[in-house]
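Notes from hallway chat w/ T.B., transcribed later so I don't forget. T.B. wanted the structure written out for a chain they're using in a teaching module, and asked if we could keep both sequence and structure tokens in one place. Agreed to drop them here.
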Amino acid sequence: MVRAVEPLGELPVSVPQERGDAARNRALLLQAARALVAERGADAVTMDDVAAAAGVGKGTLFRRFGSRAGLMMVLLDEDERASQQAFLFGPPPLGPAAPPLDRLVAFGRERIRFVHTHHALLSAANRDPQLRHVGAAAVQHTHVRVLLASAHTTGDLDVQTDALLALLDPDYVEHQLNGRGRTLTALGDAWESLARKLCGR
């Protein structure tokens, strides 16, 4: 059954207030972790690496994030929130000031880059059936569905949304890049082609 299109409300992006020094330490640790992940990839970054880069003891890092997985999920969550802010409230072509088809194309291209950057974490999260269709994934599904409807797409919007989002699956993206030699630009072009066809353009 096709669900009614509902407008997206504001995301719950607020976080509990922290003491100034705690907030600064958290930002420092996340900055160090993010730089290491960008340089080496998530799989190659250890808690020792992050602690050394941030200039703190490993115990501080574990007390703050609990585990390596906890740290990586916080990194992913923060980047997801920034991504959501961009496509929900940011400037065009991602944001609301652009036509729906332009936003849809821009979203796909940006998300493919995001998925490639965060492949290890997203792939692990997708293996948990409890995480595949909640949180950020649910926001993305609603966003794409709303844009398809706003572009006056006909037919089953849920099926069409799922078809588009399948192109953003992290393991699919990495297989296309590493196994088939395609580029991020080519994958973005494929997303745009399907989006335009679904919108009758």
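Follow-up for T.B.: Residues 85 and 178 are 30 Å apart (CA to CA). Might be a good example for the class.
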